[in-house]
Amino acid sequence: MRLSAELIGNALSYINPLGERELLLRGHQITVIENMGTISKDVECIDFVDNRITTLGNFPKLPRVCTLLIGKNRLQQIQPTIAEQLPSLMNLMATDNKIKELADLDPLGKLQKLNSVHLMGNPVTSNENYRLWIIWRCKSLRYLDCSHVSQAERQKAVELFGTEEEPTELAMKIMSKRSATIDMSHGIERTSNGAGVSKLTGEEREKIKELLKNAKTLDEVARLQQMMESGKISI
Question: Is 197 a residue whose pLDDT tops 80?
């Protein structure tokens, strides 16, 4: 089912037990997030549980949204621009999805207010560095998979992965796997109503793919991911 303005307009909105204004969009077989510019400006929590969404993103800027429930979907990737779209996001419940690579979670690191993340039921959780990687990337995180993040874990994460300015060889190896999971067939920048406005050519996609494999710093990887997301080359 398409997430139309009509569906959003008819969706139940109420105050949840946490005192947030919640928009209920669960169980509609939605495949793509779109038309979110039509939601009420006072919405603080969005419930996308039990749909078929594959990509977390394509929101307009929603500065009041602090909780996102998107469990039981088909998530495989997170748009690099998620922090610009949801700058106040504090709580992310994304259990029972299909995220595989540690680097696919890196856009969460740009969410400066992110407090809790729950990812049980995703293939990525079987990676031996899973917990420490997210702790390293998400500096503000306090709870991961219902468990408190300890200072000892933060220190261990720095020992393993270094710093943003000087990542370890292991950190760069993990980052390099991000290119293998990017959906290279799209490369489209979308507006709030889901309309595509720019598309990469096959040659451009291959060029970015190669540059991602050879990136040396986290900033360089982030810049290339932004190009892939926007569909605009600036090399």
Answer: no
Query: Residue 93: enclosing H or E segment and its boundaries?
Result: strand 91-93
Tokens for 174, please give them: 């993990």
CB 47, CB 71: distance < 8 Å: no
Whether the Cβ atoms of residue 95 and residue 122 lie closer than 8 Å to each other: yes
Q: Quick check: 35 and 193 in contact, CB under 8 A? A: yes
pTM of this structure: 0.78
pLDDT in tens, 55-109: 999 999 999 999 999 999 999 999 999 999 999 999 999 999 999 999 999 999 9
Rg of the chain over Cα atoms, rounded to whole angstroms, equals 18
Distance (Å, whole) CA 188 – CA 197: 7
Instruction: Tell me how far apart the alpha carbons of residues 212 and 50 are, in angstroms, rounded to a whole number.
Output: 33
* Sign of CA pseudo-dihedral 106, 109, 110, 111: positive
Structure-token pair, residue 144: 């991961």
Q: What is the dihedral of CA 40, 198, 55, 63, to 10 degrees?
A: -30
CA–CA distance, 99 with 122 (Å, rounded to integer): 6
In contact, 88 and 111? CB cutoff 8 Å: no
Tokens 């510019």 correspond to 37
Beta bridge partners of 56: 78
Q: Angle 208-214-220 (CA atoms, 0-180°, nearest 5)?
A: 70
- How many Å apart are CA 224 and CA 235, to the nearest integer? 9
